[in-house]
Write a structure and sequence with these properties.
Elements (H helix, E strand, L loop, with lengths): L1 E6 L4 E3 L8 E6 L2 E5 L2 E6 L5 E2 L1 H6 L6 E4 L3 E6 L4 H6 L1 H10 L1
Antiparallel strand pairs: 1-8, 2-7, 3-6, 3-8, 4-5, 4-7
């Protein structure tokens, strides 16, 4: 349910318009949040969470996330919001991961 992934500089990690399948926790590197070619934000703090709204609620992503440098992130796969509401073990997993 969780694995460490590396991305190369300029690689697209999350694509605008796709349906979320999980979310990420930044371990190292720098990210750019991009929409329509414009950088909206930059993320560089270790432990920052990104892609969580789409990943938890299954919404289409509203922006792309691009690696500004080489990046290492933890991917949390397919967390179901129903599981978080009804299964204590899911809440514990999220709380200890984040």
């Amino acid at each position: 349910m969780r694995k460490t992934i590396t991305f190369k500089k300029n690689e697209i990690i999350l694509q605008d318009g796709e349906i979320g399948e999980g979310f990420y926790i930044l371990e190292a590197g720098e990210l750019a949040v991009v929409r329509d070619g414009l950088v909206l934000n930059e993320i560089s703090q270790k432990g920052a969470i990104f892609g969580e709204l789409s990943g938890l609620l299954k919404y289409k992503r509203k922006a792309s996330i691009r690696a500004k440098t080489d990046v290492t992130a933890i991917h949390i796969e397919k967390v179901d919001i129903t599981d978080i509401k009804t299964k204590p073990s899911s809440r514990v997993f999220i709380a200890t991961t984040v």
